[in-house]
Amino acid sequence: xxxxxxxxxxxxxxxxxxxxxxxxxxxxSCLTIINPYISGIIVDDxxxxxxxxxxxxxxxxxxxxxLIRSVIRYIYLYMFETTSQRMLYTMRDYVYRRFLEEDFSxxxxxxxxxxxxxxxxxxxxxxxxxxxxxxxxxENSLLFVIALVMIFTVDYRLALCMIxxxxxxxxxxxxxxxxxxxxxxxxxxxxSSLNTAVQENVSGNRVVKAFAKEDFxxxxxxxxxxxxxxxxxxxxxxxxxxxxxxxxxxxSLTFILYLVGGIMVVKGSITIGKLVTVSGYxxxxxxxLRMAGWLANDYQRFVTSVEKIYAxxxxxxxxxxxxxxxxxxxxxxxxxxxxxxxxAEDDVILTDINFRILPGxxxxxxxxxxxGKSTLMNLLCRFYDVTDGAITIDGINVKDMxxxxxxxxxxxxxxxxxxxxxxxxxxxxxxxxxxxxEEVKEAAKVANAxxxxxxxxxxxxxxxxxxxxxxxxxxxxRISLARAxxxxxxxxxxxxxxxxxDMETExxxxxxxxxxxxxxxxxxxxxxxxxxxxxxxLVVDDGKILEAGNHDSLIAKQGYYYTVxxxxxxxxxxxxxxxxxxxxxxx
Length: 587
Ligand SMILES: Nc1ncnc2c1ncn2[C@@H]1O[C@H](COP(=O)(O)OP(=O)(O)OP(=O)(O)O)[C@@H](O)[C@H]1O
Ligand SMILES: [Mg+2]
Hints:
This protein is α/β, with parallel strands linked by helices. The chain is built from 21 helices and 12 strands.
């Protein structure tokens, strides 16, 4: 499918309305020939011929046709405008759904600013095309043809002289279209970059302030702003070159008419009335020629926007629900990784991962930063697909499952917490909006968040900003944990979820979590204390599982885990022993 076919697939639904509107437009365009025609009769028959009794009738006819034209024009303009809004609504909805369906790789590739531009500026260019450009092109072409035909009926020699400008106009329009196309692509590119700069600076404003980089950011923004202005001016410069040509072609019609027509009147081959009639049609020829440059511009702007949007949404998401998907309402939570490898681009991220977890077990995952812990969980949720091997839940490959059902069974508190601009209650209930307030409170209690929420000015109704403004890191993590638990999932993933809470709060959360025996829980952490009571501990190093077992067996093994344990607990023991002796701890 090409970008244009994609666009027309949206317009197809409104075909009937558009055809009716175009028919009405044709009708009013045909009516426009009456006025110059009547003007000619008034000159020849009333003024020169002396038939004064005709004047009132003719003027009345002029008024009636003008009135009819105005009413019909109102109707078809309304039809074009509503069609454009309706079509755009559907298209915006489609594109938005598509954005939501897209997988992580799509968001790794596309900048937020680019995607925002697709939904705003590009959509507007399309709306303008449907609401205005379609009918303007049709109306102008029609008026031009009608006027020519009418002039032919008056005098074919005069018409032939005027037709000379047509090929010149066609060539100029074609040249402008070609010249302006890259300019519009350039504009859209810089508009996206400008959007991205604004979006990043607004979202990352606190980092900008913390590093006192306002001047640097202003300079960066000014550069984008300059480039965008240059891109717009570049397009304007191209277009400016063509405007005088179109203007000259339009005016040349006036010269031709009065020169050729004047000679003909003098020679007596046409009457003055005929010349008045033809000069009445002149605007119908002039106007389209003047408009040609504008319309070519708008058309190209529209084509560029359709191409941009289509290029963004045409790629099917790689990760999709298979055709005959297994749709288990609730998993038991038995999970197995079988010879799982994962490569991103050419980087080997995970190599030959094998483990099996029984329903209800708690799994601790520990390992150096960047070792691949989060990736393991991303593969389980199918945010990415394994390159080789298989991941099964209750014996079913995750690739064979209904994606919605798979993710609905998993409650995940992600490593980088994102809270929506909503109340705390709304944020916790995000995955389960029909739950009761008691359930929200219960989940918050398990996450040890209930106390601090109640102490907030509006309690559970406190609005937290886009990024959980006004909340501490540990508070945000606990809201995110409550959100994951409230879904009542059979698999819970906590990725670094208690890293920002103190040990005491963490111990409390863990106590609560152990009471949830009907779930398989994954806890990714850097602190041994977070995972040491887990049934299975996986030690990940450089994309491989280095050690696996429970705390005691891993300590007995005296490997990586043992070293980390000694590092963390050695310090702690030293601290406790020094304190017991009443001494001062120096780290
Ligand atoms: N989609 C991806 N494309 C390219 N590289 C990726 C992708 N996902 C992860 N990586 C890389 O894989 C490695 C493992 O990343 P991962 O996020 O799993 O680490 P981690 O163990 O969770 O680290 P941390 O403890 O810091 O959270 C990193 O080097 C990361 O840059
Ligand atoms: Mg991680």
